[in-house]
Amino acid sequence: MQEPLRSVTQSELRYSPDRDLGKRGVGYWAFYLHRASGLVLSLYLLAHLGFLSALYRGPEAYNAFVAIVSQRGMLFMDVLLAAAAIYHAFNGLRVSAVGFGLGVKRQLLWFWVAFGLGLVALAAFSVRLLGGG
Amino acid sequence: MPRVGVDTDIDVRLIQSTPGRGLVQVVGSSHLESIIVMGAGSTGAAIAHDLALRGYLVTLVERGEIASGTTGRNHALLHSGGRYAVKDPEAAQECMRENQILRRICPGVIEQVGGLFVAIDEEDEAYLATFLVGCAESGIPTEVIGREEALRLEPELNPAVRLAVKVPDGVFDPFRLVASFVATAQANGVRVLPFCRVVGFIQDGRGVSGVRVVSDIRGSAMELKADLVINATGPWGGKVAEMAGARVPVMPSAGVMVALDRRLSRRVVNRLRKPGDGDIIVPQRATSLIGTTSWTVDELEPVPVPRDHIVRMVEEGARLIPAARHTPIKASFSSARPLISGNLESDGREVSRGFQTFDHGARDGIPGLVSVSGGKTTTSRAMAEHVGNLIGRLTGRDIPCRTAEVPLAPYYQYRLLGGLPEARREAVAP
Amino acid sequence: MTKQAWKPGAPALETLSFTVRLRRGGPWRPLRHRWQNFAVTVPADYTVVELLESIKGHQDPSLAFRHSCHHGSCGTCAMKVNGLERLTCVTTVADVVKEGGHLEVEPLGHLPWVSDLVADAAPLFDNLEALGPGHVRMNGIFAGCIECGACISACPIGGPRSGYVGPAPLAAARDALVTGQAPGLGWGLLLERVDGNHGVWQCHTAFECSRACPADVDPAGAIIQLRQLLASGQAKSLAGLAMSRGPAVTGAPAAGPAPAGGAPHDHRPRREGGEGW
Amino acid sequence: MRNKLWITQAVSGIILLVLLGLHLFANHTEGGLLDYAGVLRRLKDPATFALETAFLVFVTYHALVGLRAILLDYFQGERAGRYVTGLTSVVGVVAVVYGVWLSVSLYLR
After folding, report:
1. Hey, which of B250, B331, C8, D79 would disulfide with A2, CB 3.0 to 4.6 Å?
2. Long-range contacts of B210-217, Cβ-Cβ distance < 8 Å, separation of 24 or more
3. Is the pLDDT of residue B181 over 90?
4. Quick check: C152 pLDDT over 80?
5. Domain shared by C87 and C33, yes or no
6. Residue A131: what pLDDT?
7. Domain termination residue (choose one: C119, C151, C169)
């Protein structure tokens, strides 16, 4: 007896392992990364504003603060911060565009383009910061 | 560990208020006998609805989700009666009647697509006269159309088609039809307990005065007391009745159906001949259902799906609509019809499609238990009417059946947790 | 394995042995939550729901899961299989597990958990009822959606439990707007819900709903279209147009013109009102 | 309502992209961070002062609208919505007032 294949429609169509990161899609992780980077940047903003109060306290306080954050270890933190900002910026552009219907069909491509541009920008920034410092 | 205890709120009628929905269609406020209906397939759900309209205090228990047994997996064909017109005019008449009633009381779950009986070869053509006479006697409106017209209506039909007969077949959504019955019952105060397995009966001597259940939502055992217990568990009916020492001669008869991944036709397409295997294609939702076969089974979980049956279904279906052979199979599945083996014959198809009620008080000396088995989803309302009348006789009341007039609530008002008063929407799976 | 038409000569029946890991327990159960493992050997073409049936029938009758039609049209059997939403009746075990592997089944996320593998779809039904009433969903413009809840479970925003109206109801709202068929709440409230705090603007275009949808509804595309309609003011005029046509008769077949370009499911047969049957 | 916020969020994001570039360029391209005197010198320039103030306003707005969106995913209902909006607005106003006050007091030194 020849046996038919009880084929399944959903699985292969929508979840292609080679295109997707793990189980969830790229957009899923992009969303969480966007949210996390946004939160990090917000916290940084508040901290930044707080630390700048050293300016009010006068030159000694502020210059001491600058000396601390200019250490090499701190500069690495700056690179991480730049990474968050650059990712948030490029993915934000993608989300805005796609959210208004621009490039919906290519939205995955846009993600990787944004991601690639972001990496280039980050590399440039890192070289500038660490090389110059 | 399961706790055992008498469930106290069984005697409290829960009239659920559904503000703004305007579907509470109750019923006198008098508390009549309390009745437990086991099984929420189309039969049990329709019975619960019927009894609630008559004013009884009804509890509907179901071991899984509603319509998760035979009903859910049925053919989705709202019979015009055409398939029974020649062999069983009585069944055909009933189908036609119920077809019209269901269209009236729950249009939201029915697609009024119409149906065709198509003649592919000479033998089919010769059957036409017999078929038309049967339909006329059963009150089924027909219209014979020629080859061109048939192909115009259904372009993918086998080009060898000779003629076709239009009949008022329809398509329903089995799950949603049952959900409509249950939603209406809930609105009328029926307590619905899904995921609640019957594990035994409460018996005083031989008589049944309630059921022992285990709720898989609460994870605990409960005793539900009632004046009458109705066994509407379909192919499980024999095993359930056995727990009370009663006998129901149910013969589970399995049928394989194949769901193709698109609609091959707008209408239901039947072969114009005596009903047989794989002679019907029903367009249901985004699929075409080809069915079905028939053989007796013991195994119900899951009902086996023999591969050669799948092959046969596709081949038979391709005789009606050749594209069936090239369309991806979305799913193939089996369900078990609860046929009554009154006069046991070799093939399940020969056994009556009708239903039977068993008053175990009169038959086996076990008062308080009534079984109902067999039947079709299309005629479930009529079965429920019949059972309701029997309950009326048993309880000494003469309350008219109103299910043919009262419109059903929309399916989406069915609430899984409607029977759990303590249920709050709180927990999401961790 | 690829999606393919049935062909004679497909591979012969094989069996697979693996471990099934099931989420057990529930909010009202004595044991709120645990994982339970079952060692099984089943035919490779068993669907996941058949596998669950056989576990319920032969190993543990207390296992609770929803299923009904077994061919992907009722929408009851959507669960998370190995972390992804799937209609378990059209997913074979061979698709999701290898010999000796693990198969993890959980209830849908973002919906109230009832017991074991059962999640309550009531919030989804409420939102769908508000934005696209049932006759529209079953028989009309929104017939593609089988109301399984996969999109809500997959959405990173979190579905009705976060207040979010949810992907499928928003897609229903889009179809109601584009075709002018009155939603359950009426047009004013539809616009308010869709444009409100928990409407389309809560979506973060992760597209996970469209990936998870087993019925090709593409809710993400619908949400994007809704945004364009709202931002350009067209949504209001569409709703106004529909209202000026007089109160839509709920329950009646779609007698108007064929759905406009936006409705993606117009290939499905409509009720044939004219023919009577 | 959300509608307009979403659009302003996208627009403010794009503006921020420009402002952030200028901000980084102005403050971090002369080899390390500016010292106290350097900061004061730059703030005396009206163009830089305007740039920094605008940056402060936009970045605070963008951050808090984003934060509000996140919070609304976890708190639902009219009341919770009002609280979230109120809280984020207050934080935003305080941050901007504080920032402007700091700049002005430095400008006046």
Report:
1. C8
2. B210/B36, B211/B36, B211/B38, B211/B61, B213/B61, B214/B2, B214/C62, B216/C62, B216/C63, B216/C64, B216/C115, B216/C116, B217/B417, B217/B420, B217/C26, B217/C28, B217/C29, B217/C64, B217/C114, B217/C115, B217/C118
3. yes
4. yes
5. yes
6. 67
7. C119
Provide the pLDDT for residue D42.
82
Task: Tell me the C-alpha distance between A126 and B7, whole Å.
Answer: 70
For D58-67, the pLDDT digits (tens) are: 999 999 999 9
What pLDDT sits at residue B418? 81
DSSP single-letter state for residue B263:
-
Q: What is the CATH number of the domain that holds C85?
A: 3.10.20.30
Q: Are residues C130 and C226 in the same domain?
A: yes
- Split at pLDDT 50, 70, 90, the class of C267 is very low
Query: How much is the pLDDT for C29?
Result: 85
Please tell me which residue, C195 or B45, carries the higher pLDDT value. Answer: B45
Residues C82 and C148 in one domain: no
- Chain C CA closest to residue D79: C197
Q: How many percent of chain C have pLDDT more than 90?
A: 32
Q: How many domains does chain A have?
A: 1
pLDDT tens for each residue of B70-111: 999 999 999 999 999 998 888 899 999 999 999 999 888 898
Check C120 against B326: CB less than 8 A apart: no
pLDDT of B342: 61
- Put simply, the chain B residues between 237 and 276 with a CB less than 8 A from any chain C CB are 257, 259, 263, 266
Average pLDDT estimate for C174-183: 80
Task: Report how far residue C128's alpha carbon sits from residue B187's, in angstroms, rounded to the nearest whole number.
Answer: 20
Residue B132: which of B86, B172, B98 has the closest Cα?
Answer: B86
How many Å apart are CA D57 and CA B385, to the nearest integer?
72
Tell me the residues of chain D between 23 and 62 that have a Cβ less than 8 Å away from chain C. none
CB contact under 8 A, C224 and A10: no
The verdict on a CB contact (< 8 Å) between C10 and A5 is: yes
* A18-77 residues touching B, CB cutoff 8 A: none
Residue B245 lies in a domain: yes
Please report residues of A whose CB lies closer than 8 A to that of D35.
Answer: 59, 62-63, 66
Phi-psi group of C29: left, alpha or beta (phi > 0 → left; psi -120 to 50 → alpha; rest → beta): beta
The interface residues of chain C toward chain A in range 92-111, judged by CB-CB distance below 8 A, are 92, 95-96
Mark yes or no for CB contact D31/A70 under 8 Å.
no
**Residues recorded for chain C:** 277
Q: What is the pLDDT of residues D36-70, one digit of tens each?
A: 888 888 888 888 888 889 999 999 999 999 998 88
Cβ contact, residue pair B332, A2, below 8 Å:
no
Distance from CA of A75 to the nearest CA of C (A): 32
Domain extent, residue B108, equals 77-172+251-340
From the list B305, B311, B330, the residue facing A9 with the nearest CB is B330
ipTM for this prediction: 0.85
B179 lies in the same domain as B222? yes
Helix, strand, or coil (residue D66):
helix
Q: Report all structural domains of chain D as residue ranges with CATH numbers, in order of start.
A: 2-107 (1.20.1300.10)
Report the CATH number at residue A125. Answer: 1.20.1300.10
Q: Which of residues 223-252 of C touch B (CB under 8 A)?
A: 251
Residue among A42, A62, A70 whose CB faces D36 most closely: A62
CB B334 within 8 A of CB B257: yes
Residue B198, domain member (yes or no): yes
Higher-confidence position of C145 and C1? C145
- C94, C119, C144 - which closes a domain: C119
Phi and psi angles of residue B299, each rounded to the nearest 5 degrees, phi first: -80, 125
- Closest CA of chain C from B135, distance in Å: 16
Domain identity same for C106 and C175: no
Nearest CB neighbour to A69, from listed D13, D33, D102:
D33
Q: Give the strand pairing for B115-119 and B268-271.
A: parallel
